Structures are given as structure tokens and as C-alpha cells.
């Protein structure tokens, strides 16, 4: 009996074509993908018109993507897939700082700055002193931790979104801890902003009656010898979007204090310790 394609045995028909020499992990992932995809099509009774609309959507998502824009990552972000993959890949012991999304606005090779320096090059926004320590799970200071930080400017745009208007390194920098594990730098109190919503992902959010906003946050990427890479943010807890982040990046443990300072060097103070997990 030849195994022709039928609605009932659609998954078996497709999976039977995989060659014996296929990579085992690829086989596992692709067969599960086919099974879930076919189950989804059957479950909702997907129509030809709906499938054509989905293909058109994915085509637009590809066409708008390039070196400066990755619409597929944005799609993964708004569908919660980025955070799910991140959660599975970064299960951490109690007490360790949690990961969240890297986002599309990280730029390699940011300038190394002296501890205590400012990252604000445009002089806009309310200044905030960020300080704390980088610790191991036993509360010991980590020397030589490399702390990369970046945020939007006071108008809600990252430097790379406004080439020509903002210096490429505005609100960005790298700091390295000394033996006390301390870090300190001046940034701005970040503001909430919409993710890029002028493409197909923005259109999808509008169809779903979902807003595109992210609550205000400072990005941190922290590496240290013998420790897992920490990609995270600290969030402004009283932000109006804190409970409905468009990309699901908020975790309760990442809400940081932002306290007003009277007569100080900066208008705000945000103190937060980061706890790194050892490599397995
Ligand atoms: C960000 O935080 O920079 C970001 C994350 C996901 C999508 C868009 C922006
Ligand atoms: Fe961001």
C-alpha cells in the first residue's frame, strides 16, 4: 500500500519522507513542528483565503526585514516566543537575576567608559544615577564583570533609530567592576516607547486591538569569567505599561526602585544588585 496524503494521516505522510540520515535533532524538531502545524490547521479549520492572508503577511515580514530591521524577531517577540525560548534556555537558581529579551537595539562595540561616567551625550532627559553590585550566588562581589548598558533617549528613541539625529553611542556604554563588584553610571530615567509598529507586526497588533508599548527600562548585558551571560533590564515599576509590555519582557524581580533625589548630582537614583549564575 502506498502512503498517499490524506487529511487523517497528513502528519504521517509528511514525516515519512524524512530520510534515515537526517540529523536526529532536526528530525525531532521538524516532525513536532509538522504535527503541531497540521493540528492547528485542523483545529481552526483554516480556509484557503486565511492561508493566503498568512502567506502574504509572512511575505511582507520578510520584505521589510534587512540589516537594520528584523521583523521576524519582532513577530516572535509579540507572540511571546522570544520570552519562552529565553525562559527555557535560562532557568536559574533562586536568587539569581533573571533574563529578559535582548531586543533589536543592542549595538556591538560600545565604548568602554570609566566607572561613574555618564552615558548621556545629548543632555536630554531626567538624569538618574544607576548603582549597585555584581554578585555571585553566595553574595560575594564579582571583580572584572563587564556591564554593558543601553536605553532610549528622553523622546523614546534608541540612538540607532535616529542616525544623524543622535550620536551612535548616546545612552550606551560599557563598565567593568573592580574588586568590590560595584558599578555606578549616570543615565537618564528611561521613558516608555512603542516597538517599531509601521510594518506588518504593527498591523497585526492593531488588528488584535493590542498596543505596541514597552514600559520604561534600562538594558543590561553582564558577562564575567565563569558565569552565565545575563541579558536583562531594570524596569520603572510605576510605568503605565508595566502590566502589558508588548513583548512580555517584564518579570516581578526586575522592577527597580527609581527614587527622586533632592539637591544631588542627578534627579533620580536607581539601586539594583545583579546576581550571576555560575556556568554549569
Ligand atoms: C527593546 O527593549 O529594545 C525591544 C525589545 C523587543 C522588541 C523591541 C524592542
Ligand atoms: Fe528597550
Summarize the structure.
By secondary structure, this protein is an alpha/beta fold. The protein contains 6 helices and 12 strands. A hairpin with a 7-residue loop joins strand 10 (259-260) and strand 11 (268-271).
Looking at CATH, the homologous superfamily of the largest domain is Aromatic compound dioxygenase
Distance between the termini: 50 Å
The CATH class label of the largest domain is Mainly Beta
Low-confidence stretches: none
Tell me about this structure.
The chain has 280 residues and is an alpha/beta fold. It has two domains: 1-46, no CATH class; 95-196 and 209-275, Protocatechuate 3,4-Dioxygenase, subunit A (Sandwich), CATH 2.60.130. The protein is built from six helices and twelve strands. Strands 1, 4, 10, 11 and 12 form a five-stranded mixed β-sheet that branches. A five-stranded mixed β-sheet has the order 3-2-7-8-9, with no helix packed on it. Bound molecules: benzoic acid and fe (iii) ion. Benzoic acid (BEZ) is lined by residues 74, 77, 101, 103-105, 195, 214, 247.
Write the layout of secondary structure elements.
Layout (H helix, E strand, L loop, with lengths): L9 H6 L8 H21 L3 H17 L6 H8 L2 H9 L37 E9 L10 E5 L21 E5 L5 E7 L4 E2 L5 H8 L5 E2 L2 E7 L6 E7 L18 E2 L2 E2 L7 E4 L2 E2 L5
Parallel strand pairs: 1-11, 1-12, 8-9
Antiparallel strand pairs: 1-4, 2-3, 2-7, 5-6, 7-8, 10-11
